## 1
Amino acid sequence: MSAAPQAGSGIDGSGRATRSRRRSVTILLSLAVFAVAVDLLTKHLSLQELADREPVRLLGGALYLSLTRNSGAAWSLGKDYTFIFPIIAIGVLAWIGWMARTVRSVPWAVALGLVVGGVVGNLIDRIFRAPGWFVGHVVDMFSVFDPYGRVFPIFNVADSALVCGVLLAVGLEFTGRQRDGTRAPADDRPGGTDRADAPTGEETTARQPAAAGRHRRSLPVPDGLDGMRLDQVVARLFGLSRTAAAALVDAGEALVDGAVRPNSHKVRAGSWLEVTLPAPATAPVVVPQAVPGLRVVYADDDIVVVDKPVGVAAHPSPGWTGPTVIGGLAAIGHTIATSGAAERQGVVHRLDVGTTGVMVVAKSEQAYSVLKRAFKYREVEKRYHAVVQGHLDPLRGTIDAPIDRHPHHDYRWAVVSGGKPSITHYDTIEAFPSASLVDVRLETGRTHQIRVHFSTLRHPCVGDLTYGADPTLAARLGLDRQWLHARELSFEHPRTGDEVRFVSDYPDDLGRALELLRD
């Protein structure tokens, strides 16, 4: 099987930032410039039109225009210490400049842009207006209900932008949004909604030794899990189900900085996490084992990209005795990140045993955190090629149907009401008399998502007998697995920030099946 990056893939030396980061920074700067421009214009007009005039009544007295030169903060507070305000403003701008390096969320970009516009608008007054440098008076002109600012302070456009930005930032923080991403999607919560947390009473720092047969793990929370719920963090770090992780937290077996916290507690990066884990009954062990056909497409100190052959699992699991990607990498000398459950350390996404194609594994802890976050927030582009039975109608479309475990068969998944939101985009590449070759782009990454979605449309992947494929057609094409191949993977390199892209050619069995379909 051959696999190699296409021309232009691999590490892009141009050092391009990701589209999301550029977009967010552009929004932040554009909004800040707009707010400053409007603020300066309104102040200029106010100095020309409102000087020596009685307050102008607008909106039935709800709003007044009244020119005021304010030497302090609201209600002229701190007017004897005017020099302090420019210092605070410069400090705020420096802090936002540091924050802006990793901003990818549009809402956070809007919030920070408004704050920057407000701070800069008033800082210009402090620096350049009378009575002197860094002690200038701010020009205000708006008053709510009270024309003289006795009840509500008189303010300007910069003040309005600043207040709106701060309120938006507080709202984003309160709802769990992160400055470098978006709110954890609903599909990461059981049933699409947060579970109710039982009252925990006062927080306690009591520590109990691990019971016999169990062990305690202690580690800092990676950057990629910043702002997530505690039960989510425990589940992702230790490879547990959300139910099992929630039970550990409820039992006081997960401490954050030495204290028991509820499941809903938002964990911050760098916090010290101590979790007492039950000893697994049959813990799979990673055994270095040469894997024929496993090809390393690209490797550096942070990531290794492989082309996975058929019949190889991503990592060890109970009941699986065959080869694994992790074992194969260990056999050829690649050291994998230690984050994650013991049997799947470094694995940030998986391919089915019967699915071939390109796959990335984290080698460094930083890469693990960054890639897990990128996959979670759908910043990784995953493209598959599949041959499905029949002809799709329409030839290009989107399948939006929730997926969860099959109600009667544990080894299968199905479209079910109340399942996790699952979205698949497809485009027909080539049509044959009895099947179609389609390009598939995943917006979500559910187990068996492509196979389940096309089976639901009554166009199962050719050879996928588990999901209703025609065994006669599979036998004619010589397929003993589904025709499904992870064709392309592109993402931001976790250390350099460059966009990387890798493409895998079809393996021999899938290529032969295509030729038979064309004949």
## 2
Amino acid sequence: MAKKNGGKKTDTDTKKKKKPAKRDEAAPQAEQNGSLEEQLRAAVKAVDVAEILTDPLTRSIENLLRLAARSIGTDEASVLVRDGDEGGLKFMVALGSVADKLLHVKIPPGEGIAGFVFASGTPMIVEDVAQAEGFYDKVDALTNYSTQTILATPLRVNEETVGVLEFINRIGDPPYRPYTPEEMDQAAHFADAIATLVDAHETAGLIETLFEHSAGNGKGKGRVRQSELREWLKGVRSAPEHRDLLLLAVSLRDIASRGEAERELCREVLEALARFTEKQSSAGMSYLSF
């Protein structure tokens, strides 16, 4: 007769009852989180934010520039915009035989006819650049082009100059007929429309850059802290008013993200500020009407 084991479990019983470990439980939690973070970052990166806002605005500016050039009587025209906040200029959109070369050219602060128009906010006609003081001939040297006559007018938004609209030479062969005061007035109408788009383009470009930076730029970096965003924005080469606007937005987001009480406080402050500015504007209009 076989002996009883007294109720003790044998090795065979233990092996039968042992359950296999689940694969998900065996994977470290940190590894799973890392995988999820990588997937989310890849999804964000798949949305190509670069130029998603600025590209349509650039095309609109180019279309307006073509219409303006045709109306003025030339096929050589350009839109120059601020290069940083020290008065330098760069070509944003250009038409004509050396358009591609112009997009790589920058004009130092205060240099050239465009620099004068930008700094002074005064439109200008140059009948013959050979006789004009202050003409910046390095642009012609870099592009292998011969500028002879110019019409330049400022791009202004809310009393602030954001760039310069420039027309060069005429259609046909030299000597070119100088531009007229009537054509300067006509150019000013196009400048008003283009200036609005240029201002929107600058803001959109900064928002795109801010998005890429805050998302870690797709290089494995974590979410950028608000303090880092503020420090980074202070060094961005852009118009001061656009930087200040986004700095305020970053600060507001930082406060509002801390809880419902903070969000309510932000709402109350903004509403009070809106009422104050509206009151000040109404008082100013009443004074002017008086």
## 3
Amino acid sequence: MGYEKRKSILRGALILLGFLLVAAFVGPQGAEASSEWSERLSSDLKSVFSVIRWKGPGKILTRDMEFGVSPATRILDMKGKRISLRRLPVPCKAEVRYRLSSRTGPHMALEIRVHEIPRSAGLTKGGRLIHRSSTRWSEELPE
């Protein structure tokens, strides 16, 4: 075995030993800090079941709250299929999962899951129920 080969094996063993020592000394504190951080993150996650009354580009309003909607927000229809904000029917009953924000602005919605779409009593010519809900952008803010 050549000198260079032994030297590279020794260097690899020393690097591995260094990683193991760092993990042994930092591991318990790092795991504790990680656990504390994950608890804090999960406590910042909230969920509300409400009627979405208004939508516009990047934002929705429920009865009591305003939420920001980003491209990362998962929006699911009643079958659990992912849809865009543009296809979200309004009004609809939905569960909104969001992260608490320390800012004064709206909370950011992480997930919007549609549970019910209100239907009117009217029928179309084909006999289908007419939805009161629309997938168009809302015209004006509700009062």
## 4
Amino acid sequence: MKFRSIFPKIELKHIKAFERESGFLLPEDYKQFLLDTNGFFSTDFYAKSKFSDEIRQVTKLFGLYEQSLQKGVNATVYGEVQSKHSDLLYNYSALHLVNEHPECIICIGSSMMIDVLMSLDREHYGRIYCGHPQEGEEQLYDEERAESTSIEKELIYVGFRPFANNFTEFLNSSVSEAEYEASLL
């Protein structure tokens, strides 16, 4: 897999700042990924679900933009639009402003067709979901409906299916471009 880092390297203090801001502790394997790469752009990362034969291209895994952690999420502090949209804290805050996902879900990546979500709830801590609201029976997350079933069932209902049990499993699910193209047929 070829990838290009998004942001400069970070330290554990930056991850701690994100955890304070969001109110959630990140899984250890995901923290290590952020420390090692701080997110990336890729043209050849194709992840295969551990729950089905589904394969999705993922072009971006978000990193932490130090300026957003120091000054809060404010579009005027970003030098480039791409930085803003590749920042983990920006995406966390943006999703919850519009109530598109449960509070315990963070968006950790994307491509043109999907978002990559991570659950931070107790039942499915660290589980990775891929999809898009246009793929669900409903396009809008409904907190009331989620309370009567489960967060996972609500995510599936709005187009996000389980993809891996944890971040390491997700990263290790990479398949070739040929396998991805064959899955589209």
